[in-house]
Amino acid sequence: MASIPRIEMRDIKKSFGKIQSLRGVNLELYPGEVLGLVGDNGAGKSTLMKVLSGVHIPDSGTMKFEGQPIQLNSPKDAKKHQIETIFQDLALCDTLDVASNLYLGREPVHFFNQLIDQKKMHEQAKTELDRLGVTIPSTYVTVENLSGGQRQSVAIARAVIYSPKVLIMDEPTAALGVKEVRMVLELIQRVKRTGVSVILITHRLRDLFEVCDRITVLYEGRIIDNRPISDFTMESLVASITAENEEVHS
């Protein structure tokens, strides 16, 4: 594991009125690492990731990217640091085809008339999907006609196309069938092998044991456990999430 974290968050605090969502969270993420971020509902997972993706500004605390201090005041700031987030709703346009979704807002254009170069866009889309091992009937198929796993794969591919260094994934296998879950987990492994750091939020605990290197457990806005996946069993992970074990590992 690299000595310098790709992401380092220190003493992050965030409140909404009287509700303390984050109570001084420290988190590190290393290059090429898949980190599972888990906790019961209301533990602070989504708030912490929205801080990292620039959606929420923390009340206090510091962040570093590859050893350098950063301040994320918007999702645009996060993208500048190559931090991409795939939220649970995927934010895909159902009525557009696969290639148009992949390059939405960043479409290749003809030099002379600045119109979208459809041929080039679909060729690039196919190349990128093939590189990631994503199986789609055609880049001309509208997203609304894809399966859940294929839609998730398109959302991941859209984020990966622009070479992120950090990829945050919120419940990527929720509501998917067994075969589609396998497709998404294999895609996460491929993304990891390219050196991307992945944060995986999921309630499907078995998925964590398939792809994660380390698990961080949040409980009531605090990290109460942080260990390599090899240190966990399913039973010990459940016990940690429910705070049955009072010992804090870090």
From TrEMBL:
Entries under SUPFAM superfamilies matching the protein = P-loop containing nucleoside triphosphate hydrolases
Q: Does the keyword Transport apply?
A: yes
ABC transporter domain location, by residue?
A: 7-245
Note the SMART domains from the entry.
Answer: AAA
In which domain of life is the source organism classified?
Bacteria
List the Pfam families hit by this protein, alphabetically: ABC_tran (PF00005)
Keywords, A to Z, come to: ATP-binding, Nucleotide-binding, Sugar transport, Transport
Report a single Gene Ontology molecular function: ATP binding
Q: Which InterPro entries match?
A: AAA+_ATPase, ABC_carbohydrate_import_ATPase, ABC_transporter-like_ATP-bd, P-loop_NTPase
Q: This protein is called what? A: Simple sugar transport system ATP-binding protein
